[in-house]
Amino acid sequence: MTGQDLMGLVVQLMLGYFVLVNLGQLALYAVSFVEVSGYVRRVAFSALPDLFASNYVPPVSVVVPAYNEAATIADSVRSFLSLHYPGHEVIVVNDGSTDDTLDVLRREFGLIPSVHPMRQELSSAPVRGVYTAEASPLIVIDKLNGGKADALNAGVSAARYPLVCCVDADIVLEEEALLRIVRPMAESSDVAAVGGLVRVANGSRIEDGRLVRAAVPRGLLASIQVVEYVRAFISGRTAWSRLNAMLIISGAFGLFRRADLVAAGGYATDTVGEDMELATRMHRTLRESGRRYRIAFVPDPVAWTEVPTTLRVLGRQRDRWHRGLIDTMCRHRRMLFNPRYGTVGMLAMPYFLVFEVLGPVLELTGYALLVLGVATGLLEPSAFLGMALAIVGLGALPSVAAVFLEELRLARYSSWRDLARLLACAVVENLGYRQLTAFWRVRAIGSYLRSSQEWGAMERRGFVSAPQPLRSASAELDREVGLSPRMR
Amino acid sequence: MLLAGGVSAALSIGIVVAIVAVRVLRALRRRRDARRCRLVEPMLYRALELGTTPRAVRRLRARDLELLSRLLVEMLASLRGAQGQQLVRLAADAGLVHRDVGSLESRRYQVRARAAQNLGFYGATEHTERLAALLADPEESVRAVAARALSRIGTVEAANALVAHLTSASELTSMRMAENLERIGDLAVPRLTELLSSEEQADRRGQALAARILGNLRVTEAREALGAVLGRRWNADLRAQSTLALGKIGHPGDVPTLVAATRDGSWPVRVQAATALGLIGDVSTVPALRRLVGDDQWWVRVSAAQALANMGGAGEAALTELLRGADQPARRHAASALGPSTPVLAADVIGGAA
Description:
The complex is a heterodimer of chains A (488) and B (354). Chain A contains 14 helices and twelve strands. Chain A has 488 residues and is an alpha/beta fold. In chain A, strands 3-4-5-2-1-6-11-8-12-7 form a ten-stranded mixed β-sheet, with helices on both faces. In chain A, 56% of the residues are buried. Helices cover 74% and strands 0% of the residues of chain B. Chain B has helices spanning 2-50, 55-58, 62-76, 81-93, 96-103, 109-122, 128-133, 140-153, 156-164, 171-184, 189-197, 204-216, 223-228, 236-249, 255-261, 267-280, 286-293, 298-309, 313-323, 328-338, 343-353.
């Protein structure tokens, strides 16, 4: 076999890989299209205002882990307290913050010390104090630092209600988000957990903890992430949920039946991908128990989150997400190709292993060989160009299709400028951004093999609570929304 | 290679064209609706002003009728009395009622749901049976809308239809039936009470919801039926809801029944017994509640301590006594319940317990 033959084989293999990835994504897209369309038609008759006034909707405990969130915590808690829901409490867990998060809460909500006895169903770092607000259903737990998962466990332990909604402290929830996400749980006690749609807040106008106008940010990096999130959440998770094989419920916004969450053992504190690990573990324990269950996704209850705007922070975030994915796959490897775990073991986990864990390795190796081929003359520049065009064309298709679904059914971005920007990003993301994220993910495999459990510094600026559009071109933040949006 | 790239590029371009078309069509439709709205809306105001249906309404085309029905529903959501009646007549004169009754059997669930929703606003008692049939619709949205429509009609027949579907395969549907029965109120009481007496185990969820509704409506006449079900060993949820309902009704005559419920083998029943006794606030029940503060179950302890805290002096005295006792869980819960009123003592106890 000559070098040219070998290069031809590389080109064919790489092309085959891209076609396969695309086919997988388009198959998920087709399922999502039907699901989202049905959901939007049904929600028109869901009578959410009636549910809001109902005495029969199950009450919800909203658990908010907070670490050094002094800049945003007051606005966030106010927005969580004012959610349209007939009965909910907000539990903020101050996870040993070194800034004045607790003081801000004390001052803003008139907290008083409480001797409320906490159930210790899930272990967590020692609690220093519990506070309640006089005028609102707010409980604040002050504990020693133990990490996000540990804080969530403390919050879940303290929760009084049968449904627990875990949210990030710096997200903005739409007023009816809780009513919408609870609906599948109210429909059937088989539903153990529900994931909610997370969108990118950068560029949107946020006032008093409320999203006033959705817009696509001006910065390229954040704009591309808008497309990523649309593709991942609307096209991806909806389909996995239909197949009852959704492996992740975003740490930014997810609802759980408390009893099932506790029975599964709560959040794992020794992983950087605790949200994916929990969802996968819940699948595992529920399948093993033989109980009929569902882990659902609702493509409409919207949580808005700020995304990184610098390559450094984005790279760190993606590195951590990928380590979380690998860790989850390793911990639950016995589920892989195991028919006992149904679609999770036979479909979702193999898909994630091949296209998400190993995909970036194959992709980067292919790129390197192509460049090497051109450099050594084994590959014609025209063939290289053809391959590059094929990669862009194939890569853009799922994103453009996702934007179509967004526009047709959800239509959150009203201006033509935003639409044009989304479509441009769907193409542009394949010219450098995609390769860069593949690189970060390959690097993450190395980090994982070196057993790195680093989270990276959490640098947040908070939402701009002002009439001007939220811009975070210089914001350095590192958040944990879930796994890479490309993973769905 | 070029084929793959070309096909995907062509598909992407096709989708982009579709996106643009969707947006343009949406804008055009919005503009058309606004134009038609300017034509139809004045007819409604004229009808309200004249007290009769303008002739032009009878000549409206199908798509204008759709717009008319939406505007009617919006207005009827806030209008009552003579003006509301005038609009209901207008809906009938325009042929909307006839159209929507026919649509209840459409194969498309959106059409069925829309028709049911409309009939809830401008339908009449004779449509109860047709709407009731939709309570068993395969689509949850349709069942929800039909239930709301029946509660708007608000007759005994409507209430009976809702009671008949309280035990639905879908929990959400059962919940919808319950909230709409609560809206109907007194007219629903006889059939709800009857349901409580049913010995059918298949009615479990429906019975528990019936007890809950009767409690929320504070129906004194239901006391006997609620008390009677406390002896049913096979339905703990019903016993718990009946116990709470008796507490909400708050009749002193039910205190012995509730005290007996504090010894129920099922802890949710004991929780509700504690809550119910707290709601009634009879000081003679303090010993029973004190006993419950030492219960095996966390929720029972919390509820009993809270009930004592709500009982004024006698309850607080019992809690203070528990604070000084040897039972550590009871001390913690007593401290929690007393917390805001006696923070120093409570904090001391918690500190000591820790």
